[in-house]
Amino acid sequence: MLIAGDVKKIHVTRLSYSGAAAIVTRLSLGVLWLAGVVWLVAAYAHAASPPLLPELSPLDQALSHITSEDEAVREAALRVVIEQGDSTVIPRLEDIRATADRPVRLAIKPVMDLLKNRAKLESPEADARRSAATDLGTLGRPVAIPWLEQAAAKESSKWVRYTMQESAALLKLAGDDQAAKQVAVNTLGRLASQNAVPALQEIVNVGIAEGASEVQQSLAEAARASIERIETWAAWSAAIETGFRGVSLSSILLIMSVGLAIIFGLMGVINMAHGELMMVGAYATFMTQEAFRAFLPANLFDYYFAVAMPMAFLVAAGCGMLLEVTVIRFLYGRPLETMLATWGISLVLMQAARVYFGDLTAVTAPAWLSGGLQVMVGVYLPNNRLFIILLSVICVLTIYAILFRSGLGLRVRAVTQNRNMSACLGIPTRKVDAYTFAFGSGLAGIAGWALTLIGNVEPGLGQNYIVDSFMVVVTGGVGKLAGTIVASLGIGGLNKLLEPGLGAVYGKVCILVLVILFLQWRPSGLFAIKGRHADS
Amino acid sequence: MSETKKNDVTTAPSPAEPGSSRREFLVQGSKTAAGVGIAALLGNLGHWALSYAADKEPIKIGVLHSLSGTMAISEVSLRDVVLMAIDEINAKGGILGRQVKPVVVDPASNWDLFAEKAKQLLLQDKVAVVFGCWTSVSRKSVLPVFEKNNGLLFYPVQYEGEECSHNVFYTGAAVNQQAVPAVDYLMSKEGGGYKKFYLLGTDYVYPRTTNKILRAMLLAKKVPEANIMEEYTPFHHQDYQTIVGKIKKFSAGGGAAVVSTINGDSNVPFYKEFANQGLRAEDAPIMAFSVAEDELRGMDTTALVGHLAAWNYYQSVDTPQNKKFVADFKAYCKKNNLPDGEKRVTDDPIEAAYFGVHVWKQAVEKAGKTDVDAVRKAVYGQKFLAPGGEIKMDEGNHHTHKPVLIGEILKDGQFKTVSRSKGLVKPEPWSEYTNPDKGCDWISHQGTYQKK
What we know:
The complex is a heterodimer of chains A (about 525) and B (about 450).
Chain A: H1 2-22, H2 27-52, H3 58-65, H4 71-84, H5 90-99, H6 102-120, H7 126-139, H8 144-153, H9 158-174, H10 178-191, H11 197-208, H12 214-267, H13 274-295, H14 304-326, H15 335-357, E1 372-376, E2 379-382, H16 383-405, H17 407-417, H18 419-424, H19 429-451, H20 461-476, H21 481-521
Antiparallel strand pairs in A: 1-2
Chain B: H1 2-11, H2 20-43, H3 45-50, E1 59-64, H4 72-91, E2 100-105, H5 111-124, E3 130-132, H6 136-148, E4 153-155, E5 168-170, H7 179-187, E6 196-202, H8 205-220, E7 228-233, H9 241-251, E8 256-261, H10 267-276, E9 286-288, H11 293-296, E10 308-311, H12 320-335, H13 348-367, H14 372-379, E11 383-386, E12 389-393, E13 400-401, E14 405-409, E15 415-420, E16 438-441, E17 447-450
Parallel strand pairs in B: 1-2, 1-3, 3-4, 4-5, 6-7, 6-8, 8-9, 9-10
Antiparallel strand pairs in B: 10-14, 11-12, 12-13, 14-15, 16-17
Helix pairs in contact in B: 1-2, 4-13, 5-6, 13-14
């Protein structure tokens, strides 16, 4: 069209010169005559020009039509581009888009998305293939159905294949073919696809509306059955997810409060700076990461996290030791003074971190801990949470081993039960105190290390967790590790059970009220120490 | 800042009283103080020589931002930029031939302390103007102080509106300059045509009011009630498992977006959980109103890439004056050995705090004096070529006409502008959706008034 236009222009100029020279007086007639000639010449030129130029492929032709002013022409051209499905035209589309007007840009965008996603279906990365399949499903172009089906046939990863099938079925559902729709409804039901519920509901609504045809009614029937299937599945998966969330929160609570359970529970020291020892652990992790970034090659970076664990433990334990030797040692048996002193220390540590590290600092989770594991349709278990669950189990086992299977543990238990008697028997109680405190602090450091996977590293980090930790220890019963474990499981699980219904704010309020009521009923917690306690 | 302290020392000695040891002590004290004073004078000699202000009193202005406590993370940058703006003004000879002297106080993220420090600035230091506050609760707490003592506050942060004080100029965005256009964008064809909205926020006044307005707006635009979810979390909430699970269910089938007014340190756990549970920005984008470059600086941005934010300015805005502003700010932070030095970034509240100082300067020059009533009148209609483009102070409602920019978060913690309003958006302190009958005007009305 463009070419024909150009030819036309040339003829017009040439003819108008001759026309102007020949006919001056009969201008109006001349113009008419000229117009006729031009039309004829143009038509001839149009018919004659193609053989002179190289043959345009339909794709090229369509590309040249995309920028047309006429919306219908544009749409037709885009349809051709989509049907060709050739992803090599993407750069050319980009070029067109860069200079085109807004409506053209808006029209090109979905086409480009479609083609890009088609190309991505072949990507070597499973995540890219999967997100491409999801996008094709939501773009709503039926042309993508065969692409998805072909890709699904040779797909090796189970969940990527699932997404491809789901997307293909969703597209079929949106189409006009009744038989295909019927198949899609059943497939989606079989796949337990949450994403299909709105579309299926739509079909049900059409089916039960007055004046629905028989086909629509039978389709609605099938859709209803599919929705039921999906909902049942969703209920189960929600139950599993809630369970997992409860366990995950419990493991976080547990890992935060085991250190406190030892310091507060076994030694009777109310350590308000416990949260800040967690913060110290988190900053130790951050420093290790920065050191790896600065001094070691990039391919070793992911190992920093493993190295950071002993670092976090040792730094926090060192801080704890220092705290014990300089402050807490002089305040044993004076809980109020200890509380105030450690609270002051916590403020000092917090502001020190703020001054030294400044704002938020980020710990990048290593690649193997980001993302999640899909165990069934709709159920994702994030890797970082799985890791923390495992870690808390290991921590508890280690603590039990140390307390009940080692010489130090024996001494710690002895001092806890009766300090004076232990001293008489030659146990160096001061040293045992210092070690116990350092060990508890080290555990806080490990908690801080693990928490960098969940949240950010900031000076106020400890404050966010300290109240929850105390709540767990007190509910569990002071002095009993088993109590801490059961209490964190109980509080974490209950929290996650209440939260979906009540929301995060009221869920928390409700938990606090329940804990208060519980402590009214059993003031010494779940597992009270039986028998006579030396200090009480 | 150091200057104030030194001056405090020079004025410290009180008249001598009987009692030899006490007198001796005082004499010695004043000697030391005089010594320090001389040292301070010598140190400031260069400064003094620059201007001829030696015979004129400097203009004192207050800076009321938390330098410690939880809000320090955000507010310290605002103090820095205000001091930088003052330096710029002083380097060019001050205002009306007088140097400008900042009085910096630290309200320590404590709302009661904000009111106390504001009182101190107004009554004791007698500052001409105060630049300060971040959270709405801190602004609400100083408001009576400013109104009672006829002070002047420039407030640089986007906020929930529904306020129309005679003593405050709001250089941040009102809800109709940030949240409303952002949701408009999400609903538009260009923005993705989203139909379901999950309004998620931290539980305090800004998210609650903003979401109230957004809900009214969505209902007015015929979005069914069932397609709007509203949820709040406590401050410092860390466990977003359940909420992300809910979002996943809500967004199934597509067409859903999350509108987030989550504040501060809860953002990282939220975005992390969002990504870890398999949700992507393409399925359900998160549109945030409280995440800017300065917060992103300290975050691991991997989980945030592709999500959206709405502001009136980004560091990436491509204007010559912005390039200069960004470079100046980095140079200023480096020169003064501020934490992170050259790695510092600018963002919307920083820009708003910066042009606030300049708008005030222009107003003082127009009024010819620093008197609050005169300056206030002069601020109306004042224009300034801010880093993000020219802004204009409203003629009567104490707010600022600003452009609205929707940005996409990039890997390096910067934003790519994906949509920009045509021209400046007029501020509406009272939203047309929740309070259609109310207006704010200090010229033809006495502040908030009932529209007929």
